[in-house]
Amino acid sequence: MNPAKIVAIVLLASLMLHTGLQVNLAHLTACLRKYGLLGRALLANFILVPLYGVLFARLFHLSAPIATGVLLMAISPGVPFVVLGGGRRKGGSLGFAVELAFVLPALSIITVPITAALVLPAAHISTSSIVVSLFIFQLVPLLIGIFVNERAPEAAVRLQRVVGIIALIAVVLLFGLLGPGLVRAVASVYGSRGILAMLCIVVLSVLTGLLFGGSQRAYRRTLSAGTALRNVGLAAVIATASFGGGEVAAAVLTYLLVQIIVVALVGVFYSRTAKGGEAQITV
Question: Which candidate, 253, 239, 26, places its Cα nearest to that of 153?
Answer without folding.
Answer: 26
